[in-house]
């Protein structure tokens, strides 16, 4: 059994695959709740600025609108929630042109128009004074809706320490930086290169419960434990591979706003995932040990212009006792630099590279992207991905995968 088949075993059908493609954390219900424009939390969505990172760290609970309240008494518990339901919607319309698909087969037609490419509804905002949520429901290829990225959290303070608990379904969706897989560039579509398991296949198929803390001195720590959400008593969901036991995820980061006004984060995260036969949940396992170092840098310019840079490097060691019996290694690197013209436009260059000790994972792709926002909740994007190497092949075997994409991203 190869790596692709293993991933398919932990995916809940083709619907989940579609849900992994796009991201959205900038939702208007947060703006309605706080009474602030989207630019208060974002440079250009879904990138978070320092205020947006603090808003998420504190459980999505900051509110500026009238609330329904009842004081706590001996006979009744307290009540406090916003009068306006925290609901939002997102629509993405995409046109993509490429000569071949991901398998290398010639496409006919070469231009694919998706209306919608993604349609999502959100319950995103304060639940109670210390609890908030980001819950996304997305329409899949079959027309039905299913749970997408979800992060429900409790947050509180002890002195200058902010601590909390997160319940989420996608490793790194709870993260506050844009150098991680769930919220990283290119934010829409993008290069198709081999990715480590922590970034490919686990989203929406696991449930994680974890604790985090911002210690008030620039240090952030987190530990989350993930379990497979498959039902072992449902024969339709016990094919291929599933997570054995619990998969631990750990995160540490140092961040600081420098005297110059620049912002810097340097961090690391790791996860160990063991996959086992999904029909018996017994026998040998495939173990994936993922270790990543990442960084984010922001350099403010005049007139609200800014340059932001995101980088990550992952080393994944595989011990495939369940499937192939091999011990391949996957190395994955990503780097992007974004120039922001205020809150209205961005221009980005990015590169993604993967390699392995058996040559099977060798990919290199470059991405150029321009986005324009006539309004803060409306983004139009033009993107071009150029492949220098696909699965070790160069020349036309790689360049035939080059893809041009146009997209409209609407939030309300």
Tell me briefly what this model is.
With 412 residues, this protein is mainly beta. The protein contains five helices and 19 strands. It is globular, with a radius of gyration of 21 Å.
Provide a descriptive summary of the structure in words.
By secondary structure, this protein is mostly beta strands. It has a single domain (3-69, 77-411), classed as Porin, CATH 2.40.160. The protein has five helices and 19 strands. The protein has a 16-stranded antiparallel β-barrel with strand order 3-4-5-6-7-8-9-11-12-13-14-15-16-17-18-19. The chain has a two-stranded antiparallel sheet with strand order 1-2. A hairpin with a 6-residue loop joins strand 16 (345-356) and strand 17. The radius of gyration is 21 Å and the shape is globular. The termini are far apart. Residues 1-22 and 231-238 have low confidence and may be disordered.
